[in-house]
Design brief:
This protein is an alpha/beta fold and about 475 residues long. The protein is about 30% helix and about 20% strand. It binds flavin-adenine dinucleotide. Flavin-adenine dinucleotide binds next to helix 1, strand 11 and helix 16.
Length: about 475
């Protein structure tokens, strides 16, 4: 782990009353850091658990197996996340196995991949020029994006990018690739397994920022024993300062306080505080009432920020049949879908395959009934990794678009949003401060939740004391 450390806050003046909306990783970080230095915190959380989009599923699986329905891997340059993992004494291990081969599924053909870094386009059954055939996926990224990366600046700032790059926020990745003379088949390989850039309207700058962060990463890790241990460790310290089953529906700012209205146990409740940190995803917040009205720029960010669609279908299998074929159970498809065998490091016969759909693939499956989803995923997965139908003990799905308290997977910015919405996402409005992955340059990651939670806690801690 790195030497990156986060300084605990130093309280200025008398303790402040702070109400935190949401016990996801952003709210928990803010509450933990404020509580540590003696501020009075209360966290209102609509669910009966903490962690939000960090959710380990242990039911309905046999033999102690578990999987993640949300966050599942941490790039090893996510220093904020790794800091708290170390702080709470949790262990990490590689997300991907080092043994056996990956599968890339393209045009109905399963391709054995020994080393993802070395695979060239020649191995895929699509029409490429001889020059294209010799290229690896990384070569293409570098060829197209290297000139832009030279001017990248500090992509971890909310008001990024430098002026010469701003124009790229007006183009989708698909439009940018075609403006660079990239053929449709090569463009298809850009998003392989992750995104269909011909259908998903992702800003070129959103992709560039992800790429810039990715260049400083050389491994993805996971939390040994399940990701829920991270929010649980925070929640253990906060205990009765978290109020569960409290669904906030209205926030009213007064000159010297903020009133928050919520439903709990069928009753309408009200609580007042000096300050509020709101970590509720904008996809949910946009349906709530905040009075008096917020600034035009903030309101636009709340109303318009785009969210990624993501779904997972989990299959419990009685035997890890793919191991005998020399596969490790991980793969990518030419529609935005990944295959994971995340139980690979739990030594036993039984295992769980995770079929992970994003963007267009996710929206398609979300529109189906549960039995249609299982049948569809089983059919697709059986073509990718033949044998599933013989060993399948049953499956179920989780579609994040249907989750009442998230309504989407995470923010993922369309053209115009990197320069016009994100910079306004974090600004406080009077006594209301904002945190959550959607208010961070690291949006879409635990790192964004943590970094923004700490930032909002610091903002309030640093305010001139109200009554010292
Ligand atoms: C499918 C998927 C895959 C992901 N993969 C990864 C990954 O591999 N690695 C990674 O680092 N990150 C990943 N992420 C992103 C990561 O999970 C999030 O960025 C992070 O957990 C967000 O934390 P948060 O606190 O901002 O939001 P949340 O976790 O959503 O917390 C917000 C909280 O507010 C609560 N809330 C909502 N409405 C109300 C209301 N009206 N009243 C009271 N409470 C309310 C919610 O219940 C929730 O607990 C993934 C996310 C998803 C969905």
């Amino acid at each position: 782990m790195s030497d990156f450390t986060i300084k605990p806050l130093i309280r200025k003046g008398k303790p402040k009353q702070v109400l935190i909306l949401g016990a996801g990783i952003a709210g928990l970080t803010a509450a933990y850091e404020l509580d540590r230095v003696g501020h009075h915190v209360t966290v209102l959380e609509a669910r009966r658990r903490s962690g939000g989009r960090i959710k380990t599923l242990r039911e309905p699986f046999a033999d102690g197996l578990y999987v993640e329905s949300g966050a599942a891997r941490i790039p090893n340059n996510h220093h904020w996340t790794l800091h708290y993992i170390k702080h709470f004494g949790l262990q990490i291990s590689p997300f991907y196995p080092h043994e056996r081969d990956f599968i890339h599924y393209c045009q109905g053909k399963a391709i054995r991949i020994e080393d993802e870094k070395k695979v060239t386009l020649a191995q895929y059954p699509l029409d490429f020029t001889p020059e294209e055939k010799a290229m690896t996926l990384k070569d293409i990224w570098q060829k197209v994006f290297s000139p832009l990366l030279m001017e990248i600046g500090d992509a971890s700032l909310l008001d990024w990018p430098p002026e010469p790059l701003r124009k790229y926020d007006q183009m989708t990745v698909g439009e940018f690739l075609s403006s660079q003379g990239i053929s449709p088949n090569v463009a298809k390989m850009f998003g392989f397994g992750h995104m269909d850039f011909s259908k998903d309207r992702v800003s070129t700058l959103e992709m560039l920022r992800l790429l810039a962060f990715g260049l400083k990463e050389n491994q993805k890790v996971k939390i040994v024993g399940g990701f829920e241990q991270l929010p649980n460790a925070f929640a253990e310290h906060l205990k009765d300062k978290i109020c569960y089953g409290a669904q906030v529906f209205r926030v009213l700012q007064e000159p010297f306080s903020v009133n928050v209205f919520y439903h709990q146990g069928g009753l309408e409740q009200k609580i007042s505080s000096d300050y509020v940190i709101c970590t509720i995803p904008f996809s949910v917040l946009r349906k709530m009432k905040i009075a008096p009205g917020l600034s035009k720029a903030k309101n636009r960010a709340i109303q318009e920020m785009s969210y990624m669609s993501a779904s997972r279908v989990f299959f419990q299998v009685r035997k890890r049949y793919w191991l005998e074929q020399g596969f490790n159970g991980f793969g990518l498809a030419d529609y935005p879908t990944e295959l994971w065998h995340s139980t690979f490091d739990i030594p036993q016969q039984r295992g769980i395959l995770v079929y992970y759909l994003k963007g267009e693939s996710s929206r398609r499956i979300t529109a189906m009934t549960e039995s249609e989803r299982i049948n569809d995923a089983q059919k697709q997965l059986n073509s990718m990794l033949p044998g599933l139908t013989d060993y399948n003990e049953g499956g179920f799905s989780f579609c994040w678009d249907e989750d009442e308290y998230t309504q989407g997977a995470h923010s993922f910015l369309n053209p115009g949003e990197v320069t016009q919405l994100l910079p306004h996402s974090a600004n406080p409005e009077g006594r209301i401060h904002f945190a959550g992955e959607h208010t961070s340059a690291w949006h879409g990651w635990i790192q964004g939740g943590i970094e923004s939670g700490y930032r909002a806690a610091k903002e309030i801690n640093d305010l001139t004391p109200i009554s010292s």
